[in-house]
Amino acid sequence: MKILFAASESVPFVKTGGLADVVGALAPVLAGQGHDVRVIIPEFGAIPHEYLSQLSHVCDFEVQLGWRRQYCGIEKLEKDGVVWYFMDNKYYFGRPYIYGMGGDEYERFGFFCRSVLNMLPLVDFQPDVIHAHDWQSGMIPALLKIQYAHLPFYSDIKTVFTIHNLQYQGIFGIREVQDVLGLGDSLWTEDKLECFGCANFMKAALVYSDLITTVSPSYAEEIQTAYYGERLDGLLRSRREDLRGVLNGIDMEDYNPVTDPRIAQNYGIQDLAGKAVCKKALQEELGLDVREDVPIIGMVGRLSNQKGLDLVDYVITDIMRQDVQLVVLGMGEGRYFNLFSWAEGEYKGRVAARFTMDHTLAHKIYAGSDMFLMPSQFEPCGLSQMIAMRYGSVPIVRETGGLRDTVLSYNEFKDEGNGFSFFNYNAHDMLHVIERAIGYYRNRKDIWLSLQKRGMSGDYSWTHSAAEYLKLYKGLFEEKKENGDKKTEEENPVVVDIGN
Ligand code: ADP
């Protein structure tokens, strides 16, 4: 199959979160199975020179945005069997930040979406499927159906849209988006592009994509409820037949305690002696009391409300009343910076907090911690709990989204499970589960070891998920045959100058 991924980030080029991990890992796996996979991302100024210097120019053209015509260059690099395209426009993407500033996000990513469609004939790639990721690419399925589907080159292209986090939707004023993308008044109704009086890139994708996926089966169910649905639950319920949850994987090579060069000593499932060395090294590096018998609770992730940190805030004194150590690595909200800075001073030698992006330290925490705490309010998939299990750090999680799909709470009667979990978003429920985990850690070393081993032997690779995505892509074409080749077309396609 010919597949185009459109996303705002991808490892190893530019990353702010899990989206980059998914795009960067899934594309090469699909290419490895013999498919023609190409990826387009903006050529952000933050992409390291090491990659920028390898790019070769493919083509350039002008793109009409309202009354403006903007330059768009397409460069490429081939790596891991995938053609990676980079969209060059210094005005939009050559800035010192990636998201969230400048007040013209709708124009930057409107330009991205429009240009992705316009570049296809020019790079001579007619994909079977465009797989768009998160709101920054959300206008692609909408523009395709509304403005391009009547052109023979585009008429058979199918679209898949993946929700990596429903909380970020790309909400802007209708007038601004209308102006930039030439979307007429008749399209701004509830059943099409209008969303509570605004333009919403995520909603546009949810209405116009042929198929919608999200990153875990549980999150796919949850987002159809008002609690998790971020005001789009009604729309998601109406499209439930086209909505699937496909669990993310992790990079099993990068996160492998047997070969990881970043940790103090390698270890594997047969012999965990190296993990004790990693624990000691972590305690020394972070200025914690060096004690083998005290359990270390690790936390790595964005310091945001989504991650359930208000629960930790509520009972941190109760947690620290236990004989435990706490290690936190993350960046984010000031409230949590204050909380963990205070805790570090209050519990000297027992709490360590670092507020940077540090991949090496993250590996050391996964390897050196005994438990990994992730009490998220919602969690589309979550990669950290899978990484923790791979390193024999036993997860303590809230039963939501991908956490629910990957962590099974220990059941002493059946002797099954690979971690500990709680259901209600309640600080004392979390505290109780932490105490339960500490109890097993101290008094039942045999059970603890079997929990670690079960976690370490889990298959978190991309193999299953890639096969599932492929099945979904193929299904789009089978469906078409069943429906007698019917095409859904907008009643009044708006003919625009697509600049080709
Ligand atoms: P999300 O995508 O919601 O941020 P995930 O659990 O899906 O959360 O992915 C987070 C990824 O980013 C994990 O690989 C985690 O180790 C990494 N990470 C998060 N914060 C940091 C940090 N401060 N330093 C290093 N790695 C981090």
Strand content: 15-25%
Query: Poorly predicted ranges (pLDDT <50, ≥5 residues)?
Result: 484-500
Domain count:
2
Helix content bin: 25-40%
According to DSSP, the number of beta strands is: 18
- Average pLDDT taken over every residue: 94
| CATH fold-level assignment of the largest domain | Rossmann fold
Can you summarize the main beta sheet? 9 strands, mixed
Strand order of the largest sheet: 3-4-5-2-1-6-7-11-12
Annotated CATH architecture of the largest domain = 3-Layer(aba) Sandwich
Shape: globular
First and last CA, distance: 25 Å
Tell me the name of the CATH homologous superfamily of the largest domain.
Glycogen Phosphorylase B
Tell me the structural class. Answer: alpha/beta
Can you tell me the CATH class of the largest domain?
A: Alpha Beta
Q: Total helix count?
A: 18
Ligand inventory reads:
adenosine-5'-diphosphate
How would you describe this structure to a colleague?
The chain is α/β, with parallel strands linked by helices. It folds into two domains: 2-249 and 463-483, Rossmann fold (3-Layer(aba) Sandwich), CATH 3.40.50.2000; 273-457, Glycogen Phosphorylase B (Rossmann fold, 3-Layer(aba) Sandwich), CATH 3.40.50.2000. It contains 18 helices and 18 strands. It has helices at residues 18-32, 49-52, 90-93, 105-122, 139-148, 174-181, 201-208, 217-222, 233-238, 273-286, 309-321, 334-346, 359-368, 384-390, 401-406, 427-443, 445-456, 463-482; strands at residues 2-6, 36-42, 56-65, 68-79, 82-88, 129-133, 158-163, 171-172, 194-195, 198-200, 211-214, 243-245, 296-300, 325-329, 351-354, 371-374, 394-398, 420-422. α4 (105-122) packs parallel to α6, α5 (139-148) packs across α7 (201-208) and α10 packs across α13. The structure holds adenosine-5'-diphosphate. Adenosine-5'-diphosphate binds at residues 17-18, 300-302, 329-331, 357-359, 362, 381-384, 387.
